[in-house]
Specification:
The protein is an alpha+beta fold. 35% of the residues lie in helices and 26% in strands.
Length: 155
């Protein structure tokens, strides 16, 4: 893992990030991948610009030999609850198929949790689709506890 670097995503990483998000049965239904060499859809560019403009957001990538092989988004959430504690929210976690089950996910989470600690977060949380049992086992191995039931409302 010494040859993997973690960094904040750049606009030039956007197509690779979208490709990672689309590279599973759930993501394939949600994302729109453009042809190689074509720019990403405007909705992705707008979202990327909003993330970059928000100091409490960080879209991160794992890079190996110049290629994006993993991604996740960190949101730093201030709150009144828990005595004014900040929370780190980890979302949109994806590892390239060629790099799964090789330790990159754990390494990426260790990096992300360190980022949350550095920002003063007292809690790290995430949501995961109920249709991802392998991800559930992975998060539990990392020490995450399925302590809450989550709900979403599509608008």
């Amino acid at each position: 893992m010494d040859h993997i670097i973690f960094r904040t995503a750049q606009a030039s990483d956007l197509a690779a990030i979208i490709g990672l998000l689309a590279d599973d049965p759930l993501g394939a239904q949600r994302e729109t991948v453009t042809a190689a060499g074509s720019p990403p859809a405007a909705c992705y560019i707008d979202a990327f610009q909003a993330i970059v403009a928000d100091a409490n957001q960080q879209l991160a990538v794992a890079v190996e030999d110049g290629a994006v092989v993993g991604t996740l988004q960190l949101s730093f959430i201030p709150g009144i609850a828990r005595r004014g504690a900040w929370r780190g929210q980890i979302e949109a976690v994806r590892i390239a198929a060629t790099h799964r089950s090789a330790g990159l996910g754990q390494h990426m989470f260790e990096w992300a949790i360190a980022q949350c600690r550095a920002r003063g977060c007292h809690l790290v949380q995430l949501t995961t689709d109920k249709g991802r049992p392998d991800a559930h086992r992975f998060y539990e191995r990392l020490g995450f506890v399925a302590s809450h039931e989550g709900y979403k409302l599509a608008l």
